Amino acid sequence: MKRKYILFLLVMFIGFVNSIYPMQQSDNVVTVAREVLSLDKGWRFHQGDIPFPVIKGHAATYENAKAGRASGAAATDYDDSSWRILDLPHDWAIEGRVDSTANLSQGYYHRGFGWYRRQFRLSSEDKGKHLELQFDGIATHATIWVNGTVLHRNWCGYTSMYIDITPYATYGDKVNTIAVRVDADAQEGWWYEGAGIYRHTWLVKRSPLHIVTDGVFAHPVKKGNGQWEIPAEISLYNSGKHSVEGEVEVSLYAPNGSLMETRTTKLTVKALQENIARLQLSVSNPELWSPDTPTLYKVKSVVRQNGKVTDEVTTRCGFRTIRFDKDTGFWLNGENIKIKGVCNHQDHAGVGVAMPDALWEFRLRKLKEMGVNAYRAAHNPTSKEFMALCDSMGIMVLDENRLFNTSPEYVRQLQWLVRRDRNCPSVILWSVFNEEPMQGTENGYEMVRRMCAVVKEMDTTRPVTAAMNGGFFSEYNVSQAVDVGGFNYQIGSYDRFHAQSPELPLISSEDGSAFMVRGEYKTDKSKNIFDSYDSASTGWGATHRRAWKEVATRPWMAGCFYWTGFDYHGEPTPFKWPSVSSFFGIMDLCGFPKSAYYLHQAQWRKDIPVLELIPHWNWPADSVGKPIKVMALNNADKVKLILNGKTISEQQVDPYEMNTWMVPYKPGRLEAVGYKNGKIVSRAKVETTGKPVQVCLTPYRTQLSGDGRDAMPITVEVLDSKGRHVPTANEMVEFTIAGPAKIIGLGNGDPNNHEPEKGNMRSLFNGLAQVIIQSTEETGEIRLTAEVQGLKSHTIIIQSAPAALVPSVAVEKPLMLLDKWIVSPLFRERPDVNCRLEDYDMNSWQPFAGTGTIKLENAQYVLLRTTFVPDRLQQEKGGNILLQQVVGKAEVWLNNRKIGSKMTKRKEDLLVEFPAVKGECDLRVLLTGEINSVVELKGNVMTGGEY
Ligand code: GAL
Predict the structure, then answer these.
(1) Alpha-carbon 662 to chain mean position
(2) What sections of 459-589 are H helices per DSSP?
(3) Which residues touch 422 (CB under 8 Å, ≥6 apart)?
(4) pTM
(5) Ligand 1 pocket: which of 376, 563, 571 to mutate (most atoms <8 Å of CB)?
(6) Which of 160, 654, 707, 813 fits a 20 to 30 Å CA distance from 619?
(7) Ligand 1 site, residue 750, Cβ cutoff 6 A
(8) Phi and psi of 500, rounded to 5°?
(9) What is the pLDDT of residues 51-101, one digit of tens each?
């Protein structure tokens, strides 16, 4: 029989006996290498809220007010054994189904409440280290407890939380418990925000003298004549007991790894205080960072105490200059370039906001290939992994704050954003708001003035903007407080505002909002469908072509951020149910290009020839002879259109409008040829295909890293007998996966589709679907098969390659530790073991919570008491209690029944069984010894698992 037992670790001491104090920390310097450990694995999750127990009665009310005594699902010993086990990042909303009664803005997904719990152990070697728990993002409001004490309340779904858990940590056998209550009914946006702990989570162990999180600021500044300086600021914190002298060394490393310069300085850091080391590095003629050459240098900061290294952080930086000019727009490294940007939210088909980092790489690559050089994180901070990708891939970022508010909590959020991202060469502009009703008022102006000051206090190297959609001409308006004026839409006001405020550089912080559904060529509002000819937009917006033309033809407009690069869940403007995701994307929710993709690519990329023909050429028989609108999206000078070998006509290319023809339909082959300076530079064709005969899977990459994190999208399509993609297919596809990977999401880009985004079935939409797979920590062959009824199936093999695992905090088996005891006064005579304890008596018995010895001074008996609720399994089947290392005779009583005893006095473990029980149990231990002898208890109480 497997034994479940409760094992006591009474790490306690009693004031009136020989106490064992926590070991005095020696004055030796604790010098440990910083350990950054992932806490993503092995969380227990409960969907829905768990009300806190009603607090009634004096004892319970008194307890409730004490540190470490959180109740309900926040308590350390809460029974979570029936909760689901999962890994982060996690978004529970996307696991549900769309429902017409839910909020349209949130994609018709239900959100609600959820709880997460995680236990972990710290070894005795961790004692003395500084311990920080980090959550990179929780949607939306969260309360976080560690070991029964509430340590953080989070009011923003887009900011990180850094929580010092050092004072609350326990070491050795006693596990630490994190409990997180998530309120995702709270909303901060008008788009899909997901629900849960949807970004990474970490435990960071450092020496007492260490660099604080985001504590290095090392952003290069140009001084002239090829000379650059890096005014480095390193913020140190000392969680040790004494003031210390620290030495900080800062070194700059070139992209090839060679050391360029080193500087050192000394400083005093008082106990429990922060101090900043300031050093200056200088460099001549570094390689510059730009979207085309995203060259990154490294700054290594090393902290020493008494010659020993106590912490080390490597930060990346890039050398580049930026300037927004009132007449000529944006300048990067002395070159006048247009910002060709897109706005985006942070969700993807199948995974919602729980985006694997690898999927960001996929998305950013698609954008780069389209010619994007900038990204507006609309309307909130993104993840640090996203920012690192923008730095290394060369994408400039308009970094935006979430809520417009100057109260301390929101100022703290803005400060966090600037502090985290101010080393990123990609960040070229801070935005303090998006479209605020107070933008044209004195109140709004005063708020923006304050928010700008908050930013400038931390970073003077980038200008601040605010994305305004009105109020430009009010007597007071926020454009008077910013460095760069941000226009959201309002094309009709560009010139008037520029004439009125000629000194203010301007950018289109948001434009477009045109509608398109991938693969559709006829607008049918009764079916919530828009065509792909760039023919419609919101009333406030403009078509893709117009939006760009208005920016491109005004030299003083620094550039644009098109709304949006990708479709997103929610905001299905201009429709409602059954539409569940947006229509604005240049790409759909999966990242499949709509025709707008080629339109922007033709307009934004000069380095490659672009030519794409729309529509497909698979029209029904009754279309023969009827005119079909044909469009060539291209960057040539001239385009020739040919149908079935016959030239239709040749057109000059208008780089803004592109080329269109009305062509009487005839099945076959429609071709286009692009010319530049009289030479053929590009060709494109669409062909009438046959019926689908086989499924085809195309992976984004041929290999996954076997690290349990790597992920990739795989394109699903069907082909005709000649191997041609069938653009009109809508078949249902079923997937099977074998080997070291799992399917984490499905999509097809149809904004009107209600199929689940999890599982193993998805229909094609206009020829395409996507399945996203993620590796496990094993290596080997992954086989993914796609089947469609009546067609030939397709299996692909992807290798999961050996990869370094991200160091992680081990997952503990669930256990309950009984460590909340009380101890009676000492007795000469045997007491009544089951004596009644009065609820109001706070004083006769003492709290008892640790390993300890009890001296029976003039006495022979002492009684210990605790209460606990056995876990579900124990309530059903009974369990065990193990008291470890008991010195003295002992009796164990549970709910007024004796369940075991120890007759010897010598040190021994005592294991007792108890029968099936219901609800809270009253546990008492009577320890007996000779007068003036010592009785002792040392051990663990564990429950809920199989040991
Ligand atoms: C803007 C807003 C965006 C989005 C867009 C849709 O006003 O900033 O978040 O709602 O409209 O057109």
Answers:
(1) 47
(2) 494-500, 544-552
(3) 217, 219, 458, 459, 461
(4) 0.88
(5) 563
(6) 654
(7) no
(8) -80, -35
(9) 999 999 999 999 899 999 999 999 988 888 889 999 999 999 999 999 999
